[in-house]
Amino acid sequence: MDEHPEAILDTLRAALQQLPQGHAQIRLHPEDLALVREHMGEQISHGGHRLQEDFALQRGDCRIDTQGAQLDATLETRWRRVLESLGREHAQFAPQDAVAPDGIDDDDAWEDERTAGGDGASA
Hints:
Largest sheet: 4 strands, mixed
Radius of gyration: 17 Å
Number of helices: 3
Helix content: 25-40%
Structural class: alpha+beta
């Protein structure tokens, strides 16, 4: 996301198209919120949406709440859905800057529980 912060704009546009109505509360990382205000501010206000900073979200994450609907457009959820569609239901997301419990940086952001040795079983 550091290299392409504008990707949040496409994510938000796609997410808003999935909602049945306007007047959504859109939660974004503060830096993404500034970008969205700059490039989509008019569209957001015409839809009656409210933008809210959420320091718990990472860059590229988005959560949208409306009456009767919630949309989780976090990177973790989006990647999990992609992997599930490819038949990798047991894959787990770990950000690239995560450090493994043994203190070694994990270059592979995705790890399959079946091959990670979590339960001693192999695929």
